[in-house]
Amino acid sequence: MADLTLRDVRKSYGGMEILHGIDLDIASGEFVVFVGPSGCGKSTLLRCIAGLEDITSGEMHIASERMNEVSPSRRGIAMVFQSYALYPHMSVYDNMAFSLKIAGEKKVEIDRRVRQAAERLQLTAYLDRVPKALSGGQRQRVAIGRAIVRNPKVFLFDEPLSNLDAALRVATRIEIAKLKESMPGTTMIYVTHDQVEAMTLADRIVVLKDGKVEQIGTPIELYRRPANLFVAQFIGSPAMNILPATCEANGEGMLVRHAAGGAVHMAMTPPTGPAGGEICLGVRPEDLFVAAGTDGLFEGRVDLVEQLGEVQLVYLDIGRGAPLIAKLPGNQEVARGSHLRLDVRPGHLHLFSKEGHSIARRETS
Amino acid sequence: MSAPSASHPAGQVNVWAVVARTFLLALLVCLGIVVLYPLIWMALNGFKDNSQIFGDPFALPAGWSWANYVQAWNQGVRNYVTVSLIVTVASGICTVLISAWTAFGLTRSRMPMKPIVVGFVLGGLMLSPTVALIPLVKMLQSMGLYNTYWALIILYTAFRVPFTTFLIRAYMLDLPRDLDEAATMDGASEGQVFWRIILPLCRPIIISCVILHVLFAWNEYLFAMIFTSGADLQTLPVGLTSIMARHGTNYAVVFAAMTISALPIVVIFFAAQRYFIRGLAEGIGK
């Protein structure tokens, strides 16, 4: 059981600062996922936590103990690498037993723990094999097993599924979720750029961009109440549609008019934003639906239809900027080149200031 | 009508391919004969006597008597083999361990001005043994190492470390860093990472380096001649020269002695040929 705390953690290589003051509290037993685009610093942050990179400034505590100067092996942390990093010249058994042998554990205890972990991960039949004689999924399980035998306080995963094919990725993701359930006291930190992994596995997600935390929250919080334009567009697939718009006071609420001409009265949202000013209007593709009659916030010509079976992605040319993407039911008749009106419930709209900060939160309706 | 005309050019191509392959095969066989025949001829002449050697040098021996080999062995070759063996094994172990440890430091550790250090270590490749002879004689004499095993062991090690480091470093650069980091996370010290992870993974290049070192140390003549004077400390190349001086007219014994001296190298090379080529290909071929 270990809380993990980061306070103003910075990491520089030479004169270049990669992490710009990360503050983070991770509760004991929590599953936290770091997501962000390539180069955002998520792997660097994980390596700083592991002790594989020195923290330039700031503090890191595990279970209230300062860890900045503690060597990686004494932090009570185990890590599963993106490349698995299995020792190619050792058998599966020896790979899993390596840390215990280094720690000077007794042979009987090493054997018990390795076999216990192997049984849990269904690796018993492969203990005598070398890594190159295993499939990708089995290697991944060995990498996890090597971490499990150490009974770590904190488990780190660095994009562990990125080398697997799509089907195996789903299966292994489910196994990791089960593993987490079976180890409720172990804190897990998981780095990925795959938002599906983040949404399905995480208790909380930390979204990073350019070495800064953009937002921390539960998957559904990030999806429903993104703190800024970056999070709004990063979480969700396809990304949220963003249109320039203006807002002006209108009775008790405000009237939002987007660049293509459509307007909507948002009665339930307090006019906390710069009323009368320029804002950005966000709408998720899955929140759009075909409008009845002549209503509809958006209208335009259908540029492209991507039929995915269960759903279809409709690209609507609304006359301004990038096409509006709508995720509509797959069985709905939408012809390319046809004229279409789309609407959205006001509660599903997102408003952002010109600087990209959220100025109104979507309400459930 | 079109089928025969289509098959004709194809037939021509096949003929040329067969000719090319035959030519290549013949070339390789010729090369093999050029390399192997002198060795076989030398070994066969060790079974003859002088009259047979001069009377019919290319004929097979009249009998298969080991007398010349036994005589050569008893008249000094045994001592020369022992000295060569001690010097080669000791300097080989020292060279490979020092080079591997140096390569580990140069590829794995964080140090300031690493490129300069790499240049300094590999710069040893440029040093000519001949140029260094006189200072080395003075140094080893003043250290009391002249005419000892250590003189040759130290010199062979010193002069082979840069090249061996160059080979092992190139190989280590290709080993993924994740392995070191995983071992570090598992609690291994730098020494344990080296001994238990990196060194076993370098086995192909280590074997290549050992073979190259054995080839060098077993056949080295200049240092062995200069830095040893006593008959009991002569290595095979120097010893063979003195055998030739002693048995100048008994060529059969000289041939037998030369065959004995060449045999270990040939056996070692053929036994480890697969690793030798793999190690070099993986180390510097990428």
For the largest interface, the chains and their residue counts are:
A-B, 23 and 17 residues
Q: Estimate the mean pLDDT confidence of chain A.
A: 88
Q: How many beta-strand segments of chain B?
A: 0
How would you name the oligomeric state of the polypeptide chains in this document?
heterodimer
Content of β-strand of chain B: under 5%
Largest sheet of chain A: 6 strands, mixed
Helix-strand pattern of chain B? HHHHHHHHHHHHH
- H/E element order of chain A: EEEHEEEHHHEHEHEEHHEEEEEEEEEEE
> Which structural class is indicated by helix and strand composition of chain B?
mainly alpha
How much is the radius of gyration of chain A in Å?
Answer: 25 Å
> What name does CATH use for the topology of the largest domain in chain B?
MetI-like fold
The coarse overall form of chain B would be globular
Return the domain count of chain B.
2
Give the integer mean of the pLDDT values of chain B. 87
* SS summary, helix count of chain B: 13
CATH architecture of the largest domain in chain A: 3-Layer(aba) Sandwich
> The CATH topology of the largest domain in chain A, please?
Rossmann fold
CATH class of the largest domain in chain B: Mainly Alpha
Question: How many domains, in number, for the residues of chain A?
Answer: 2
